[in-house]
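pls read this stuff:
=====
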Amino acid sequence: MALETTWYDFVCFGIVGLAFLGALLVLGMNEGASRRDFETTYESLLLSRPDDEVILDVLPSDHVSTSQLWTSCWQGLHPFCLLCTRFLSFVIMLLFLLWDVLLYDARIFVYYTEWTFALVIVYFALGTIVSVYGCWRFLNKPFIHNVAKDEFMSRDVEETMSTNLNVYQEREAKSSIKLESRYVEEEFQRRAGFWGYLMQTTYQTCAGAVILTDILFWGVIVPFLPISHLRLSPLMGCMHTLNAFFLLLDTALNNLPFPWFRVSYFVLWSCGYVIFQWVIHAFGFKWWPYPFLELNNKWAPIWYLCLAVIHVPSYGVYYLIVRGKNTILPRLFPRAFLRIDRKVNLNVKVAIVFNPSIFNQGTHLLNPLNLLKLLT
């Protein structure tokens, strides 16, 4: 084994281990509870439900519905525009990564930059596939449910429910209601939930990793660490710019939520990279890609502690960007921007089942104020 350890190396091991376990604990407290609530609701929605009932669901802010994966936050922007953006981002970044590998061979993946760059490519690949699927559904499936949801997010509750009521009254034919019920049921399918969950977590992991990579590169490595194998080149400059540019462009267009607790995935990602470095050095790898990761240094525990702490502001920067997007843009473009955070501020999942006979009995049950009382 080529990795020699000293007492301060075990301090580094402890820092990474605590970060890893802490991230798992946060995910267990938040993600696990949310998924159990979702599965319970899912099962209750499928048990003994008549064919002529329609589901109008309101998801908590930390979950993403199927339609949010491929629709834009800008009202009227066709899903095909988001598809083109994601596909072009995927192709361009993939070409740069191939250029990087051809120039330096596969050992270039010893760097965190290449790990992050590849992860962003994976996100855009998933986003492209999901957007293709979304465009197909947009053209071939009834879109009543998603239109109602967009309206619910973009207008006040009173306006929205009256608009949705008019839409439903115009479409009160029983066959259309049954078709919509089947469509909404498909939104809760496990496969769609898995890919949506994977895409969402990849997106938020990329966000923190991109900010961390670019801040360390442009703020620390380039000006203060003149390392021979980290000399600035056009390729390296592009890779540390395009990753943030394309991800921010997608953020400006997408409709994905950005809950804070998923910083844990970002921490797990970085812990995985550090453990990878330890493993390859234990098996004979000679040099460290970044000097602040070296273990044979008495200052290593301080470096590792600083790297652990910097994950919080790195993720926080992107969190503030998304928060600013959902706060400032609706004020500048009130009729064009769809605010996710105004949908409904709930901590639990609520599902309301409407029977088509309600449309023939009267509208008092669909009154916006009455519905708001049910939701709160």
Summary: The beta strands are 54-58, 350-354. The two ends are 60 Å apart (CA to CA). Residues 7-375 form one domain. The chain is about 70% helix and 5% strand.
